[in-house]
Design goal:
The chain has 324 residues and is of the alpha+beta class. The chain folds into three domains: 108 residues, Orthogonal Bundle (Arc Repressor Mutant, subunit A), CATH 1.10.10; 140 residues, Endonuclease, Chain A (2-Layer Sandwich); 55 residues, Orthogonal Bundle (Arc Repressor Mutant, subunit A), CATH 1.10.10. 53% of the residues lie in helices and 14% in strands. Strand 8 and strand 9 form a beta hairpin. This is HTH luxR-type domain-containing protein. It comes from Dactylosporangium salmoneum. InterPro entries: Sig_transdc_resp-reg_C-effctor, TrmB-like, Tscrpt_reg_LuxR_C, WH-like_DNA-bd_sf.
């Protein structure tokens, strides 16, 4: 129990016995504790070293035991001071290790990720990339991401890239089929040689140029904060793979979305998954690029086909019937 203040178990036993019997000497302690005489004398030496026992006034072998209020409290204070000093040493070591690690990290090879803040700065960077791209441009575009002004401003850049032989593929959200401006833009791009497809939910806003640089939002739900420009070969390759996977199951522009064996369109399947996950009409609409009113209409139609009375039952019933 008193190891933390430097006492052995034997020294502790001897000290406690002496507190009860202050007049005992070595012989009495040996007899009472059942310890060898050498062990008792070693314990007394340690107690004397710790200032818990000192010579008494009754003769050369007389011993005086120091009270715990005096002796043990002093030892505890010493132990606490030593612990505090040890903690300071550990903190200094931590700072030294951090400095060594930072120096080592400074010499590591780094892949470049540039933070581009604010929408206008992102647009300026996109203009630069569009003028220097040479082979391919891959994009994910959310339904309401581009304003009419932005679309018109981008037409000359897109036309120039296509005329230079740049292959352009774009994945839109399914909801753009209901937006005349976006639909007209996608049709115009197709006439110039661009290729467009749609999916119910675009994973994230993204532009990949020549498979060497990618731009994604700093925060997925707050594109106005700006973008991250990524040049890491591995990271860009992973984003290209994501694009190709989405492209493979997306619906080409000009074709009706394919329905599954249950007669569900990709958009309806996505909505049922969102309902089953607990999304409201508003949050599901934001995910799909649809108004809450449109979501409610589709939900009502799906609920009728599923034979349920509420939107809350639609997702669960779709799972139960194997629609998802």
């Amino acid at each position: 129990m008193l190891e933390s203040v430097g006492l052995t178990a034997e020294a502790e036993s001897v000290y406690l016995a002496m507190l009860k019997q202050p007049l005992w000497g070595v012989d009495e302690l040996v007899g009472a504790l059942g310890l060898p005489e050498g062990t008792v004398r070693q314990a007394l030496d340690l107690l004397a070293e710790r200032a818990l026992v000192r010579a008494g006034q009754g003769g050369p072998d007389a011993l005086h035991v120091v009270s715990p209020q005096a002796g043990l409290i002093d030892l505890l204070a010493q132990a606490e001071a030593e612990l505090a000093d040890r903690q300071r040493q550990i903190e200094l070591t931590r700072v030294t290790i951090s400095a060594i690690a930072a120096q080592h990290d400074h010499h590591r090879r780094r892949d470049e990720i540039v933070r581009i803040e604010e929408t206008l700065a992102v647009r300026d960077r996109l203009v630069e990339l569009s003028r220097t791209m040479t082979t391919e441009c891959l994009t994910f575009t959310a339904g309401s991401e581009l304003t009419a002004e932005a679309i018109e401003a981008g037409r000359p850049l897109n036309q120039d890239a296509l005329e230079r032989g740049v292959a352009m593929r774009n994945v839109y959200q399914e909801s753009v089929r209901n937006e005349p401006t976006m639909f007209a833009f996608a049709k115009w791009m197709a006439e110039l040689g661009g290729h467009s497809r749609t999916v119910p939910v675009v994973p994230l806003r993204m532009i990949i140029v020549d498979r060497r640089v990618a731009l994604i939002p700093i925060e997925a739900d707050r594109p106005q904060l700006g973008a991250l420009e990524i040049r890491s070969e591995g990271a860009v390759a992973a984003l290209c793979l994501l694009f190709e996977q989405v492209w493979d199951y997306a619906t080409p522009f000009g074709e009706k979305p394919r329905v599954n064996e249950r007669g569900l369109s990709p958009q309806e399947q996505a909505l049922l998954r969102l309902l089953d996950a607990g999304h409201t009409d508003e949050s599901a609409g934001r995910k799909l690029g649809l108004s809450a009113r449109t979501v409610r209409r589709i939900v009502a139609e799906l609920a009728d086909r599923l034979g349920v009375d509420s939107r809350f039952q639609a997702g669960a019933e779709a799972v139960r019937k194997g629609w998802l």
